[in-house]
Amino acid sequence: MADVSDPAIIEAYNDVRSDKTDTKWLLLDYESDRSDKLQVSKTGTGGLTELQENLDNSKASYAYVRVTYANDKESKREKFILVVWIGPECKVMRKAKISVHAADVKQVLRVYSLDVPAREKDDLNEEPIVKKLRKAGGASYDGI
């Protein structure tokens, strides 16, 4: 089991969800290579591109992101995604624990529209994620 008991995780989660802060994402990393305790390693006010820049290819991490997109000229939607990042250079033993740990993370970072497994930074390009969010959101008048 992953240890997600750090109160800073809930605080960062609430910041991302709040309309009163500029925080758009949070990144959870393991305390050390041998630890199963997660902590908030970074938060940011940019979007998915900024998050991509902060991912470490040698780590497994979890991110919670607010994604804003326009459905048409008059509307704007905000949805949340949960990213399970397994960097291409992540150690085998860490990879083996991810599916179990992801379930523990989902108990804390509960409200999201899309679960995004990412193995390469390109898996977090905004356009394909927004397409998936539009499909998941139901009312799409663009034929997507």
TrEMBL record:
A GO biological-process term: regulation of actin filament polymerization
One Gene Ontology molecular-function label: actin filament binding
Domain ADF-H: 1-134
Family of this protein: Belongs to the actin-binding proteins ADF family. Coactosin subfamily.
One Gene Ontology cellular component: cortical actin cytoskeleton
Main location: cytoplasm
Localisation per UniProt entry: Cytoplasm, Cytoskeleton
Species: Schizophyllum commune (strain H4-8 / FGSC 9210) (Split gill fungus)
Span of the signal peptide: none
Name used for this protein in its record: ADF-H domain-containing protein
Record-linked SMART domains: ADF (SM00102)
